[in-house]
Amino acid sequence: MQARDEGMYTCNGWFPGEGCIQKSFYLSYVCPRNHFLCDVSMCVPIRKLCDGIRDCKDGSDERKSQCDLKQGRVQKCLQQLDIRPKP
User: Fold this and answer.
1) Residue 78: what pLDDT?
2) Which cysteines form disulfides (predicted)?
3) Contact 18, 26 (CB under 8 A)
4) Most-buried pick from 40, 54, 76, 80 (CB within 10 A)?
């Protein structure tokens, strides 16, 4: 599946136990585990998020708001573990 395949689909067909019916469903694009979904619907590994290199074609992996959020999560985790960065 590719991101361009995302959307609403309707199928007409024979379904065992149900007969000939129409079913609709929404198919959404999801990245594999430990990956970030870029705004241009491509996936990059989480470890490449906010590393100073534009891995997404649109640079959404380096967006300031995204990186500030990531930094905040790291700081919160360190506080919970009572680990302080070296000066």
Assistant:
1) 52
2) 31-43, 38-56
3) no
4) 54
